[in-house]
Amino acid sequence: MATHQLVVADAVLRGRPGRWQIGIDDGHIEAVTRDRLTGRDEIDAGGGLVTESFVNAHLHLDKVHTLDRAGEAALTAYTAGEMGSARRSIELASAVKAQYDRSWIAPNARWAVMQAVRYGVRHLVAFADVDTKARLEGVIPLLALREEFRGVVDLQVVAFPQEGLICDPGAEDLVRQAVELGADVVGGIPWIEHTDAEAREHVRRMCELAAAGGRRVAMLVDDAGDASLRTTEMLAEAMLEHGLVGRGVAHHARALGLYARPSLERLAGLATRAGLGFVSDPHTGSIHLPVRELTALGLPVAIGQDDIEDAFYPFGRHNMLEVAFLAAHALGAADSAGLDLVYDAVTTTAATVLGVTGHRLVRGGDADLVVHHQSTLRSALAQHEAPAYVVASGRVVATSMTSTTLHLPT
């Protein structure tokens, strides 16, 4: 008689020698053992590495496949040099919003979520521009996708005032409307404002809105090559002031990579008090958050996809193994400790940053798993293939097998 609804057999687990069996019932892991288990359904991992599913902590989901609509001027400005033209790139990229329409945003975004299923992305932070140019055309289809894929890919939809608040009168009302429609997270981009005082006001208003609505905050901070930008600090201070401790995330924060060590340590202390998590996307800009340094200072840092074929990045498949592979190069994280760091940053650490609980391959954890074709973490990262099996909420939602037939001369 079957003892579990689903069993993953003959699995290799990180940091645990031998072969393992995983018993799953009602969407949770009920057993992790080296003893033989039986299940109503069984997956033979065949000695493949089994881990927690992926977490994408940052994706501009409403912008997927918009590069051809936007043109390359913004891409050139954003990726050139030390990102001194980051603000200009945002202004150039906003031209696409004249065409914003949910009729084409919806299928592009749905393609990206389907790719999330294929590549084992279980949790996704999905930004949608909400401003006087984009209006609510981006956020509405993302809210619909959240419901369609609930239990398979969990979307946290971010109402994101890309053009600023003070710079874009009327955007604040639209963010409020998006929250009333059901957006999960209040976004922000305070460094885009024209003065430090306006940036601080931007942060204050969005944190006040989040606190009033019981929402989290997610802000793109210090996303340029200028160490004088201090909006990460502003966000941490506002979280403390508005009772949002542990409920905020600083995205990009690229300018921190230019900080002197004493400034970085002081900010790390403030961020720790605020419970501020970080998300880096080191493959999409010429400078990036000092991921390894902040991790060593005790702060959780996730890594996100950021963009898929839009005005800021011309590639992307929503494959977080590929993202971690790129991060290992960008961060100089090629040793075993570095590979563990980048993999955690797209799985367990990323879940911690987003406030997702239960995302652990332990008894009682959520049954959200990927079964790799390869048996080691290094080989899985090197190949960055779609997992052989993806399990979400205790059931198999995707299978991917790869084969090649060679026709060599005899």
Fold and architecture overview:
The structure is a single chain. The chain has 410 residues and is α/β, with parallel strands linked by helices. It folds into two domains: 4-52 and 359-399, Urease, subunit C, domain 1 (Roll); 54-354, TIM Barrel (Alpha-Beta Barrel). The chain is built from 14 helices and 16 strands. The chain has an eight-stranded parallel sheet with strand order 6-7-8-9-10-11-12-13, with helices on both faces. A four-stranded mixed sheet has the order 3-2-1-4, with no helix packed on it. Helix 7 runs parallel beside helix 8. The protein is globular. The termini are far apart.
The residue ranges in which pLDDT falls below 50 over 5 or more consecutive positions are none
Mean of all residue-level pLDDT scores: 96
Structural class: alpha/beta
CA(first)-CA(last) distance: 52 Å
Question: What is the name of the CATH architecture of the largest domain?
Answer: Alpha-Beta Barrel
Instruction: Give the C-level CATH assignment of the largest domain.
Output: Alpha Beta
Q: Describe the sheet with the most strands.
A: 8 strands, parallel
Number of strands: 16
Number of helices: 14
The succession of helices and strands, N to C, reads EEEEEEHHHHEHEHEHEHEHEHEHHHEHEE
Shape: globular
Strands side by side in the biggest sheet? 6-7-8-9-10-11-12-13
Q: What percent strand?
A: 15-25%
Helix content: 25-40%
- Give me the Rg, rounded: 21 Å
The name of the CATH superfamily of the largest domain reads: Metal-dependent hydrolases
Number of domains: 2
The name of the CATH topology of the largest domain is TIM Barrel
